[in-house]
Design goal:
GO terms for molecular function: kinase activity. This protein has six helices and seven strands; from the N terminus they run H-H-H-E-H-E-E-H-E-E-H-E-E. It is an alpha+beta fold. Helix 1 packs across helix 5 and helix 5 runs antiparallel to helix 6.
């Protein structure tokens, strides 16, 4: 009889989620300290970087949140292409960004009421001409709006959480953008664009 390792898997999953939900400890306000932290993190992640399928990472992040009971099966909807979308990234850092954004989005979704559409997590490949790199995005309902300029994401707890996410994305060499839809800002799209992986052959 094989030993039951489900508790070990759950423990690992909970540790991963906990790492993604520590905005107070991870937020660095001093510009010089932030630059030093980013440089150190970038060197560590460069050594750990490899070509990974963003679709597979998205599925794994959602599975972790399901396994730890942080989200219900109906709260996140995956919108993934049929083909893999590869990017040279750190698995640990990319997973951390996805978990952080997903838990933030689900929290905003729950505050709006369970009758609304699920949080949507999508992945897009880079274009053939290299105008933009591979990306993933979240679309969800939110009662409050946030500034669209990343440097101005201040004020609310959600804005602070997005600021932390932006700093994590920058260690990947990527860019985070926030867009509010409608005059009331009832729908928010958060896009994480990663560096150009090299112009595809065509």
């Amino acid at each position: 009889m094989k030993p039951d390792k489900s508790h070990e898997a759950r423990g690992d999953a909970m540790s991963a989620v906990a790492m993604a939900r520590r905005p107070k400890q991870m937020l660095v306000t001093n510009g010089e300290s932030r630059s030093r932290l980013t440089a150190v993190s970038t060197r560590m992640d460069d050594a750990d970087s490899q070509y990974l399928d963003l679709c597979a990472l998205a599925r794994h992040a959602v599975a972790l949140l399901h396994a730890t009971g942080h989200v219900e099966a109906t709260e996140i909807q995956l919108e993934l292409p049929d083909e893999p979308v590869f990017a040279r990234v750190s698995r640990r850092r990319t997973e951390q960004v996805m978990l952080h954004l997903l838990t933030d989005a689900v929290g905003a979704h729950r505050s709006e009421g369970a009758s609304l559409r699920a949080v949507r997590l999508g992945v897009e490949p880079q274009d053939d001409f290299g105008d933009y790199g591979p990306s993933f995005h979240l679309r969800y309902a939110a009662r409050d709006t946030v500034e669209q300029e990343p440097g101005k994401l201040t004020g609310s707890a959600r804005a602070e959480s997005l600021t932390v996410a932006r700093e994590l994305v920058e260690t990947l060499g990527g860019h985070l953008a926030v867009r509010n839809h409608g005059q009331t800002g009832t729908t928010v799209t958060v896009t994480v664009e990663l560096p150009d992986q090299g112009t595809a052959s065509w």
